[in-house]
Structures are given as structure tokens and as C-alpha cells.
Amino acid sequence: MSLAAQTYPLLKSLLFRLDAERAHEWTTRMMRITHSLGLLGSEVPGEVKPVNVLGLTFPNVLGLAAGMDKSASCVDAWGAVGFGFVEVGTLTPRPQPGNPKPRLFRLPQHDALINRMGFNNPGIQSAVARLQKRKTKAIVGVNIGKNFDTPNERAVDDYLICLKAAYAVADYIAVNISSPNTKGLRDLQEEDAIRRLVSTLKEEQANLQKEHGKKVPVLVKIAPDLQPAQIEALARVFNEQGIDGVIATNTTISRVAVQGHPLADQAGGLSGAPVTQRSTEVIRAFRGLLHPATPIIGVGGILSGAHACEKLAAGAALVQVYSGLVYRGPRLVHDVLAATRSV
């Protein structure tokens, strides 16, 4: 393990004295600086093999979930740490500031975060410009969404703008219809709405494949708060439309696991340990319903190598982390890759 992984417990104690969003910004800035100086050590243990998923060769099974690098400003650094893939965003057609601050909260007793960021991002074109200059060998996914003031009946227009803009620079594109922090967004998971959206995006994907001479897979990121009938409906649409993959899951609006905590009533999506089991259950449910060739990226509450193995055993082909990185630091990358190399 690198020096950063060994010293993170001390650094964490300092970072946790800062406002959560300020600590995140500081960490990202330091990642860029240390990488530029060649001081960022890799957390990849020996004998980690690449994996072939989505028609792509991933250096390893571990990815960074969307939300950590919203502006695609730190992709090379994340790759240097050891992530096999990095998902940037969520990105929208127009830049937007997101929801009012404070909007990110730690619940250390539960190894959890609550966020209501609201797709704060510099806009798709800004991120594309950065990604054109990337040097990392890590696979890069671009997570796309709609602007907060775009009504749902016109949401497809926003997704099309982002799909077209990102296609040339993305290795895959993730369609975010499951964030709880943009009003009405989760309504797009309703069967008729998702059918229209996916059908339109798949049609445009085919056009872009001809134009660019390559197929960029399109995946859909879904919520953990789905009822069995909703999961069945989504799987039915994904199979009908030939979706390239599913990302399961986003954050939860449930507060059952953190009842009684002073911050439990804060609006937003809850992530980290409280969603570990539920996200695995959703992965398992989709695995039983999706076409066998449709891969699932498992994300939600991975705070150890064992958690990652559980997601893979439930049917995920790849895994992603976010909140676990806040609580475990770079060592989590090493531990997940060490645990999953024989899976």
C-alpha cells in the first residue's frame, strides 16, 4: 500500500473537522497536485487481471462512482491511484450550481453520507474539453442527466444533447434517472417514460455509432428504492430495448437505517453502509430478470473487499465506490482489488 493509504487515518481526522463539501474540494485539489508532481502512489496489488465487460477491457473490476468527480477534473489522478474505471458527472447540457449549501453531510456513526447536491456541474461541454486531454488508461464513463428546470416531458432533449456531446470522448455513457435530488427525476423510471427515453437514446446511439465508427455503450443507473413490480417493469424495458448495461444503485431516500440520528431528517440521498444490503438485493433481482449478456455495475455501500465480493456474487460484473472512499481512504482500493482478484 502507498504512503497515502497508510497515513489516511490521520488525514481523515483533519478532513472531518472541515465542512464535508469543503473537505471534498480540498481532497480533489490535492489529488491533482500530488499527481502532477508524480507523488501519487498506486494501490493496485500484484496479479490483478483486466476484465472484459461491455466490449471494453477494464484494467480491473473497481471503478469510482459518479459524484466524486463531477467536472472530470481529476480523471488521470484517479486512474493513477488504481481505479480501473472512473465515472464522471452527473453532467447536464447547461452548467448549474446545484442546490443551496450546506448540501453534503457525514453520519460517521453509520459510515454514511447524505447529499442533496442537485447535479452541480460545469456543463457537458466543459467536461468534454477536459476529457479530450486525459492520459489515463482507465476506462472513463460519462454520467448524464437533465437540467433542474427542464420539465420531464422534455427530459429526453437534455439526455440527447449530452449523449451527442460525450460520445466521442466517453468509453461508456450512464443515464442517470435515479438521483433523488432533482425534482421529478425518478418519475422517469416509470415504465412508459423509461421506454420512450431508452428507445430514443438507443436510436441516437445507432446514428452516432455510424458517424464515429465505434459503439459507445449506454447504461442506465437506477434507484435502490424500487418495488418488485417496478424492478420487473424496468428489466422488461431494458430487455426489449437492448440496453447495454445497468448501474445498481444510486442513493436511497429511506432513513430506516439511520433513525434517531440528528441529521436523519436532512433531505437528499443516503449512501454508504445503510444501502449496502439493499443495493445487493437490487443487483440480485435484476440479474435474475435481465438478459444474461447484459452486465450490471454494482455500487452502494462498498466499504470493504468483502462487500465488493458480495456484489459480484449477486451478479455484478464490475463494482464502484464513493462513500466508502471517504471513510476508508485509498486503502479501500487496495482491499477491494486484493479481495476480488480471485473472484
Give a description of the structure.
With 343 residues, the protein is of the alpha/beta class. The protein has a single domain (3-340), classed as Aldolase class I (TIM Barrel, Alpha-Beta Barrel), CATH 3.20.20.70. It is 39% helix and 16% strand. The chain is built from eleven helices and 13 strands. Strand 3 (62-64), helix 3 and strand 4 form a beta-alpha-beta unit. The two termini are 21 Å apart.
Q: How many structural domains?
A: 1
Mean pLDDT: 96
Computed over alpha carbons, the radius of gyration is: 18 Å
Instruction: Tell me the strand order in the biggest sheet.
Output: 3-4-7-8-9-10-12-13
Strand content: 15-25%
Count of separate DSSP helical elements: 11
Using DSSP, what is the number of strands?
13
Low-confidence stretches: none
Shape: globular
CATH homologous group name: Aldolase class I
> Which class best fits the helix and strand makeup?
alpha/beta
Question: What is the CATH-assigned architecture?
Answer: Alpha-Beta Barrel
Order of helices and strands: HHEEEHEEEHEHEHEHEEHEHEHH
- Quaternary organisation of the protein chains: single chain
Tell me roughly what share of residues is in helical segments: 25-40%
CATH topology: TIM Barrel
Alpha-carbon distance between the two ends: 21 Å
Q: What can be said about the biggest beta sheet?
A: 8 strands, parallel, barrel
Q: For the record, what CATH class applies?
A: Alpha Beta
